[in-house]
Amino acid sequence: MYYKRFTYLYVLAFLLLPxxxxxxxxxxxxxxxxxxxxxxSLSGTxxxxxxxxxxxxxxxxxxxxxxxxxxxxxxxSSSGTASIVAQSSLDFGDVLVGEPAMKNLVVxxxxxxxxxxxxxxxxxxxxxxxxxxxxxxxxAGGSITLRLQFRPASxxxxxxxxxxxxxxxxxxxxxxxxxxxxxxxxxxxxxxxLTLSFGSVxxxxxxxxxxxxxxxxxxxxEISQQIIAGQDSLHFSILQxxxxxxxxxxxxxxxxxxxxxxxxxxxxxxxxxxNDPDLPIAEVILTSIVTDLEQIPHRPSDARLYQNYPNPxxxxxxxxxxxxxxxxxxxxxxxxxxxxxERLVEGFRPAGTSxxxxxGSDYPSGVYVYQIExxxxxxxxxxxxxx
Length: 387
Hints:
mainly beta, rod-shaped, Immunoglobulin-like, 5-stranded mixed β-sheet
């Protein structure tokens, strides 16, 4: 019984001894990098590669099969041949349209004979080889670095292929898949000026100025809101707003009206809210110096326009004016946007003082401007309809 047990152990040790010797002879040290293995199962030298097969970290001379452990990669190449080793794909990620992005590709010779590269090519034209390409030879265990570029011409995903013609029996036409995504840059809002100065303006005299809004970015500029703010905002209005969507390189013209209702210095702010990430709120300062009617010297030869009475009124009020000589008279009423509401007098009138009643029954509450024109002169005043 003891003899049989001893015989069994002896036979088992005899069978395992070659394996133990083989293991001791083929032990390889490697680094625990993630492997995304590729390669061919051949008879010959076993070689250990690091992450994505980019670095040769050890070798053994026994015959085995390709093995992927999750942390190392064993690759077999025939003795006396070249073996090309490189990543099978490159992702350039998101790149602004028209801008370049670069990546390096390391190509190694994992065989025991020189690796001869006869040609390198890359397609389509959005990809290019900046350096490291062309015919060359890589010694056993050596490597070269190819510098690749992706410059998207439009938005969207662009795929390509890098082809390396070589003398490796396993991969004579080695292909690397390329991918990149072109993205549009953000919009960029620019204003023709940051200050609109209306200068010196007589009270109740409308004056207009223009402002250009430009999009110098790569994406559509979307304007969500256009307002005038500040304590003097009542004296300014947007006569013509910018378009809500402005294409790249596009321009939209705004027209701002200043209708001062009282004298003194005026200051307000035009604000544009948009999707420009660097300037979500663009601001233009609006200024003027208003000359009040009381500051304008009156000459006996001038026409006169008196304050309406009553004021505020609902729904009627009386407007009085006087002209020193006979002539053509035009008396009109405007809203604050400068739109004509009603013509009260139009035609030839004799010299002297006249009175006219304005009926606001058909108009909403608000501030209105009444203006007289006579002999090339214009006088304006303001009245309030309060219902």
